[in-house]
Amino acid sequence: MDTQTTLTAEHTHLLAQITDRARIVLQIASQDRWPSRELTALARYLRAELIRQLTDEERLLFPAHEATPELSRLARDHARLRACVDTIAAAACGRDTRSPAQIATTVRDLLTQLHNHLATEQATLTAPGRPTISTAALGACPHRWYPLTEGPTIDLDALPAERLLDAIGDRLHRLPRGEHLDLCSRTDPGKLCDALASGDNDYGFAYLACGPDQWRVRVTRRLER
């Protein structure tokens, strides 16, 4: 089986992405400074990718297994991870009064919980001699797209053409109201913009560059629908 289609490979990628973002938060917090931008980046990744992974596993993987105490434990782990993500997201939005040291403790706790959970989940769901298939191989959105759509400028040519609408639609859904991002391409992205705007007045589109070698469209999420 291709390693990119296994649950272990999917978990490895997810954990590496979260760990990289968490280390930056911990580095800033260790200097007794509030990691505002870094914590926001971590919270957005957790909300977009970790929570989706948990939901996809419950939808695509758990029903294929007989109900057991081990499977119930995995579900409880998911609930605890969701609660920890909510805590980090609230801190990133300034909705609590945690100190840098306290948020560092919360982030380290998340990493420990996640590392232990993923190892337990792989051992529980994997049959001897037969690796468990990943959620992406069963139709879920691959996690490798997120870094390509994370910043304020997205290179459309770097994304898979057959899933471009899904990837950009997911990114626009994460875009806060009143903020914008730029879509860049070597060809006119007009058809993509039309598809994104179809039946939805939540976004505005404006061309910043019209070729011939580089096209750029700014997408702004409106403050109110």
Brief write-up:
The protein is built from seven helices and four strands. It has 225 residues and is an alpha+beta fold.
Backbone structural class: alpha+beta
Number of domains: 2
Fraction of residues in β-strands: 5-15%
The helicity comes to: 40-55%
How many β strands by DSSP? Answer: 4
| Name of the CATH class of the largest domain | Mainly Alpha
Mean pLDDT: 91
CATH topology of the largest domain: Four Helix Bundle (Hemerythrin (Met), subunit A)
The main sheet orders its strands as 1-2-4-3
Please work out how many helical segments DSSP would assign.
7
The unreliable regions are none
CATH architecture of the largest domain: Up-down Bundle
H/E series: HHHHHEHEHEE
Largest sheet: 4 strands, mixed
Radius of gyration: 19 Å
Quote the distance from N terminus to C terminus: 46 Å
Shape: globular
